[in-house]
Design goal:
This protein is mainly β. The chain contains four helices and 102 strands.
Length: 1191
């Protein structure tokens, strides 16, 4: 029992001592005899006592391990491997160092026992090796096969059941080296023998290979190791080189893996190089240290020429050049320096060739193209001492160059030369152009020609300014001869600049950004080149101008200086940054423009609202400027005078869109001259120019709150002052003159009869300049109607002289007139106050129609008009000696002509018709029995229009007593139609009439028997015809005073005038008188017919048989009034008394009263005037005064 306890305690102690985790290596081997193999495992941390090995899950107890170097070796008994497991079967192996101990790593192997290898000698340079043996069918893709030589893993290339190929490592010497082949975990070990092979060789040249930006020495040769690094020995020191890029024994290249070996060697210095591979060293070669690199080549041309290649050419020692070839040809090397090589190359066919340059052993191979020769290019010229030198490309070096100047042969150049990268040919023309003249040059090479247009420039000078690093715009003054930018190019450091403007004395251009430093500047003007340098420096702090504008696409554009043309800029609006565009050349010379691309302004701001802005560029911030937000400015400009105050105002007013009423934010400049702004509104601006401006097309710049509006405006010289031929009065003493170009900014001077007097500032009325002058200061006073001469003197000169008549006032009494001149009268007469009798000093307009002054007197004016007037109220303007007066006149439409029922024969035997509204200025037409006949113009007779019709063919066929119908056409309208009776004469045998009235019968020749065709007037009073026959006429006549009176008889319209006597005849006996006396006055059978009154004023109305007391009609005026055919029959008024009745200003026009409306009187338009006895008037006056006593 005690023994058992002791054994258990020992077991626990053993487990505690051997509780480590073993580590199995990845290979195994066999030991023992065939058929009784024991598997051998290697690893670390095995138990020093027994170990427990598990193979495919079967445990075996293995003996204690043995120590080998740094690892342990453990042999397992044969029973550890299942004897039934086939060759190539899977083995899964792990172990424990004690029961219950941790499990080691697991190795998954293949069971191989029959692996054999036939070893052979291999080359110390290393490389591909093929060994034969027995390998079964091993799948290389499963990475079951590995090869090691002296512990170095080799790359396995391929494995078959009988052959294995791998890359052997390079060894420094020959000898035997450990060899290990691992197949599926089974390791075969032996020793393999290394022997020397062919030593390395390399060409007598070297080159440079760029790796990771470093230039590394490269060699080409044979017997380099492709599978392991080679060694290049530089000046006796070994340095690691790359593997070869081709198999051992083939031409291959290798290069140093570091530039350290060559960094300390000076350019052009001699150094030694050899190669060591697999313990063998090549011959040592001597080279010169050169780094060759071509950075810029040009295409060569097939006719040959000269080329310059840029690059790195060591120390530039031309003696180090060993060879230079292009294809199979050897060019002629001309110049070599550290950065360029120049050579003349011969003709060669078009194609691609290798140019091989060997300098000091360093070889550079560059692919070069031969191209078909294009037409030559002429880039520039020089012309000095009568020698014209042309610079260009593709001139002939092996071909002749034929040169023509202005199409004239200037000579032949056999071979071009090369200068500063240009092909150059020179000739000596017989003459040279004038400075600034254009000339043409043509050069022909190998049948190809080109022509260049140049401008003859002798020299260029330039005054430069410092440029800023962000780029921008610069203006350099100097001497440039030309003004055409199309013939000028300018480059800074080879970068083309954008040319803005050039003149003979200045050039403006946009230049690119550059770092601080000095750079070349080249300007070509018409083919003439000038080269200088410019200095770049840091930009100044940007400035923001107090202006902005809107782009066509609605973006804000700000102006300033020192703003970047390349980098993104920013605008700070009210302190908030927004992106803006790079600067561009401003419309304002010397300034930069940037565009604010955000539309935030149009969203946030209202019209005329102020805001602040700054520019941020190149890390710098500008000044702060306060603007007013104005969306748009438009201005309708017209020509202005260069002197202010002479164009109808003391200021100029332009209309447009201005967006503000605040003059404090407005400035206006014309032709760089500031103007004074008096006022501004959203739609107009009033200003004056303070100084005289240049004439012609000038620039107008309007700034409203920073928004700039620019346009052109034509500035002209004010025309000479003009004095109109009119004047007026604004008070009793102040005379007003009118005209144009009077001075509004200061007093004007009037010269009256040679003496100068100060007048007022000008002012405008209806667009006409006015000035006034106090006549009380006249040295010699003027009288009404006196002529005086006036001239106005302004700040810009003298007006014309005008002679006036001195007038204080004009008055005119107008009446209505017809719109057509010449109807009803030959002219018009207006009464008034005119002051003169000279019609030459008078003009009169009705509306726009100028009237003809026939005559004028101090109280009346007689005029006519040739054009028709406008119907209605018209302005009448009269000018007498310069004094103007305006009133209105009513223009009536002319009525239709009226033909009266009367005619007679003139002493010449012509038919005479009477009426109204006949044409006094043009012929009338008379229509007789529907046939028109021409008639002369009308004339006036006793208040009637008359036509004396001298074409009697119209009545020659009529017989006495025959009726004929007539109407008149006055050129505008037809008159009424009247039927007359054709008579040539009437005879009447008159007798005296009783002054008390009565009946009478006269004998004579009357031709008719119808009383309706007859009318009879005695003393202009129509009497009643009671009977008529061809031989007698009976009538009743009224009472009248004794005397001789006219008797007018009219038969069928034909008039005959004679006289009749009123006498006192014996009174009849009382028995013969019936009702002759009444208590009141009685009138029985009184008849008045055909009264016509024209322009007559009648005061005092008389009624027969009526008692009227104190009746007065005053101021009754009838103008153009016609009362026709008024007939009162049998009216009786008894005892009627009217007292104190007064009628004033009564006007009667065209009133007709007829007792027989169906039979109008034949004398409708005859005038009647009553002649009242003085006794009757006195009687009536007495009765009137008596009636006043009873009131």
């Amino acid at each position: 029992m005690k023994i058992q306890i002791i054994l258990i305690l020992c077991l626990f102690y053993f487990i505690k001592l051997n509780n480590s985790q073993a580590n199995l290596f990845d290979t195994y081997t066999w030991t023992g005899d065939v058929g009784n193999y024991s598997i051998v495992l290697t690893g670390t941390d095995f138990s020093i006592e027994d170990n427990f090995v598990y193979v495919n899950g079967i445990a075996s107890i293995c003996s204690r391990p043995t120590n080998v170097d740094t690892y342990q070796r453990l042999v397992c008994p044969p029973l550890a491997i299942n004897s039934l497991l086939a060759e190539g079967g899977n083995l899964a192996v792990y172990m424990k160092t004690a029961i219950g101990g941790p499990i080691s790593n697991t190795q998954n192997w293949k069971l191989f026992k029959k692996i054999t290898v036939t070893l052979k000698d291999i080359n110390t340079s290393g490389g591909p090796v093929t060994l034969s043996g027995q390998f079964l069918n091993v799948d290389l893709s499963n990475t079951l096969v590995r090869v090691k030589i002296q512990g170095v893993e080799c790359q396995v290339l391929s494995v078959t059941s009988s052959q294995i190929q791998f890359i052997s490592p390079q060894k420094p010497s020959s000898g035997s080296y450990p060899f290990s082949l691992v197949v599926g975990g089974f390791e075969y070990t032996s020793n393999i023998n290394y022997v020397y092979g062919s030593p390395p060789t390399f060409d007598n040249k070297y080159s440079w290979k760029t790796v990771n930006g470093k230039k590394l020495l490269a060699l080409s040769g044979k017997y380099f190791s492709q599978d392991s690094n080679n060694i290049i020995i530089v000046n006796g020191l070994e340095y690691t080189a790359s593997t070869a890029d081709a198999a051992f024994g083939s031409q291959a290249s290798i290069y140093l893996l570091s530039d350290v070996p060559t960094n300390s060697i000076a350019q052009g210095a001699s150094f030694q190089v050899s190669v060591k591979v697999g313990g063998q060293t090549s011959d040592v070669k001597n080279f010169n240290f050169i780094k060759l690199l071509v950075t810029k080549t040009t295409s060569l041309i097939d006719i040959g020429g000269v080329a310059v290649f840029e690059g790195e050419f060591g120390n530039g020692d031309i003696t180090l050049i060993k060879s230079l070839t292009i294809g199979l040809l050897t060019p002629n090397l001309q110049i070599l320096n550290t950065t360029a090589i120049k050579f003349q190359y011969p003709k060669q066919n078009v194609g691609t060739y290798n140019m091989i340059l060997n300098m000091g052993g360093c070889e550079l191979i560059t692919s070069i193209t031969y191209s078909a020769t294009p037409a030559p290019i002429i880039s520039k010229y020089t012309w000095s001492d009568n020698v014209l030198s042309l610079f260009g490309q593709w001139f002939g070096y092996y071909e002749q160059n034929l040169i023509y100047i202005n199409n004239v042969n200037a000579g032949t150049v056999q071979s071009a030369t090369l200068s500063s990268g240009y092909d150059v040919v020179s000739v000596s023309p017989s003459s040279s152009p004038s400075i600034g003249d254009s000339f043409t040059v043509r050069i022909t090479v190998n049948g190809r020609s080109t022509t260049a247009n140049f401008v003859y420039i002798q020299s260029v000078s330039m005054t430069k300014k410092t440029l800023i690093t962000p780029g921008g715009i610069a203006t350099f003054t100097g001497s440039y001869t030309v003004s055409n930018p199309n013939i000028v190019s300018l480059k800074i450091d080879g970068t083309q600049c954008q040319l803005s403007v050039i003149s003979p004395t200045s050039i403006k251009f946009i230049y690119p950004p550059k770092a601080i430093g000095q750079y070349s500047l080249l300007i070509n003007i018409g083919g003439f080149e000038y080269t200088t340098t410019v200095q770049y420096t840091n930009p100044p702090t940007p400035t923001l101008s107090k202006t902005y504008r809107w782009s066509n696409t609605g973006e804000l554009i700000f102006t300033g200086t020192g703003i970047s043309y390349v980098n993104q800029n920013q605008i700070l609006i009210n302190g908030i940054p927004y992106d803006a565009t790079p600067a561009v050349n401003s419309q304002v010379s010397g300034f930069d423009d940037i565009t604010f691309t955000s539309n935030i302004a149009t969203i946030l701001f209202r019209e005329d609202q102020f805001f602040t802005a700054q520019v941020s560029t190149n890390g710098l911030v500008s000044n702060i400027v306060t603007f007013n937000f104005i969306k748009n400015i438009t201005m309708n400009v017209t020509d202005i005078y260069n002197a202010s105050g002479y164009k109808g105002s003391s200021y100029t007013r332009f209309y447009g869109t201005f967006g503000t009423s605040n003059t404090s934010i407005v400035s206006l400049i014309i032709d760089n001259v500031p103007c004074t702004v008096f006022s501004i509104s959203p739609t107009s601006i009033d200003f004056s120019n303070n100084y005289n401006m240049n004439l012609g097309d000038c620039i107008l710049i309007l700034n409203i709150g920073g928004l700039v509006y620019s346009t052109s405006i034509n500035v002209i010289t004010p025309p000479g002052s003009k004095l109109l031929k009119t004047y007026n009065w604004i008070s009793n003493d102040n005379m007003v003159f009118m005209g144009s170009t009077f001075c509004y900014n200061g007093p004007n001077i009037v010269n009256i009869n040679g003496i100068e007097y100060e007048a007022s500032y000008a002012y405008s009325v209806n667009g006409i300049d006015h000035i006034y002058f106090d006549v009380t200061v006249l040295i010699s006073s003027l009288t009404i109607g006196q002529q005086f001469t006036v001239r106005v003197i302004t700040g810009i000169g003298y007006s014309n002289s005008v002679s006036f008549l001195y007038m204080k006032s004009i008055s005119i009494n107008t009446v209505g007139i017809y719109n057509i001149d010449g109807l009803g009268s030959l002219s018009t007469i207006f009464y008034g106050s005119y002051g003169i009798s000279d019609s030459n000093a008078v003009s009169l307009y009705i509306g726009d129609v100028e009237c003809t002054i026939n005559s004028i007197e101090p109280t009346l004016i007689n005029f006519s008009h040739t054009l028709n007037l406008k119907i209605g109220s018209n302005n009448l303007h009269i000018n007498i000696g310069g004094l103007e007066y305006d009133t209105t006149v009513y223009v009536m439409s002319a009525p239709a002509p009226i033909l009266l029922n009367c005619y007679y024969w003139s002493v010449d035997g012509n038919l005479v018709l009477k009426g109204s509204t006949f044409n006094y200025k043009s012929p009338n037409k008379v229509n007789i029995n529907s046939v028109d006949f021409n008639s002369p113009s009308a004339y006036s007779n006793n208040g009637f229009d008359q036509i004396e019709f001298n074409d009697n063919s119209s009545t020659s066929s009529l017989t006495i007593g025959q009726s004929f119908t007539v109407y008149v056409f006055n050129g505008f309208e037809n008159s009424n139609s009247i039927t007359f009776v054709y008579l040539k004469s009437i005879s009447i045998n008159t007798q005296s009439l009783n002054n008390t009235g009565g009946d009478a019968t006269f004998s004579g020749e009357f031709y008719v028997s119808n009383t309706s065709l007859v009318s009879l007037l005695v003393d202009n009073v129509e009497v009643q015809v009671t009977h008529i026959s061809p031989n007698s006429i009976s009538f009743q006549y009224p009472a009248n005073s004794n005397g001789e009176y006219n008797l007018l008889i009219k038969i069928g319209g034909f008039e005959y005038l004679t006289t009749v006597q009123y006498v006192t005849k014996p009174t009849p006996s009382p028995s013969q008188t019936t009702n002759s006396q009444t208590s009141d006055t009685q009138t029985t059978g009184t008849q008045t017919t055909g009264t016509q009154t024209t322009g007559t004023q009648t005061t005092g109305t008389q009624t027969i048989g009526t008692q009227t007391t104190g009746t007065q009609t005053t101021g009754t005026q009838t103008t153009g009034t016609q009362t026709t055919g008024t007939q009162t029959t049998g009216t009786q008024t008894t005892g009627t008394q009217t007292t104190g009745t007064q009628t004033t200003g009564t006007q009667t026009t065209g009133t007709q009263t007829s007792g027989e409306p169906d039979e109008p009187s034949d004398e409708e338009h005859l005038s009647i005037s009553f002649k009242l006895p003085i006794s009757f008037i006195l009687t009536q006056l007495s009765l009137f005064l008596l009636s006043l006593l009873f009131l």
